[in-house]
Write a structure and sequence with these properties.
This protein has strands at 2-6, 9-12, 17-24, 31-38, 45-50, 56-58, 66-71, 76-81, 90-98, 114-115, 119-124. It is mostly beta strands.
């Protein structure tokens, strides 16, 4: 299984970015996908997840600003980030777990078996 993130970069506060994650190697679309992030000196935290049926869960800090989506035909996960703030600065990781379970709360990091290498997002004030 390989997860490859892209789309990170540097933007000013209030700007937008769209992250993508190409997912390869999973046997089918029965999986939960998501995004985690880690800022310097802070623990890795869940940002947004989308389960097998398209149900989404967001961290409180990004609700209303970020949108997660998936294109199963393209095996690609997206994270649309708007109204970015300096506190959104972090390395963003794509994550996956093969499961058909309903997911309605943000799982802990150990729930996800597969991780990408990360893409850096930097927001300047």
């Amino acid at each position: 299984v390989h997860l490859a993130e892209s789309g990170g970069g540097s933007v000013q506060s209030g700007g937008s970015l769209r992250l993508s994650c190409q997912v390869t190697g999973l046997t089918d679309n029965q999986n939960c996908l998501g995004w985690f992030r880690q800022a310097p000196g802070r623990e890795r935290e869940g940002v947004a997840i989308i389960d097998v049926d398209g149900r989404t869960t967001y961290a409180e800090s990004v609700k209303g600003r970020f949108t997660i989506s998936r294109d199963n035909g393209k095996n690609t996960l997206y994270l649309e980030m708007n109204a970015l703030k300096p506190e959104d600065t972090a390395m963003y990781y794509c994550v996956a777990r093969q499961t058909d379970a309903r997911v309605t709360v943000m799982p802990p990091r150990y729930y996800f078996k597969f991780w990408g290498q990360g893409t850096q997002v930097t927001v300047s004030s």
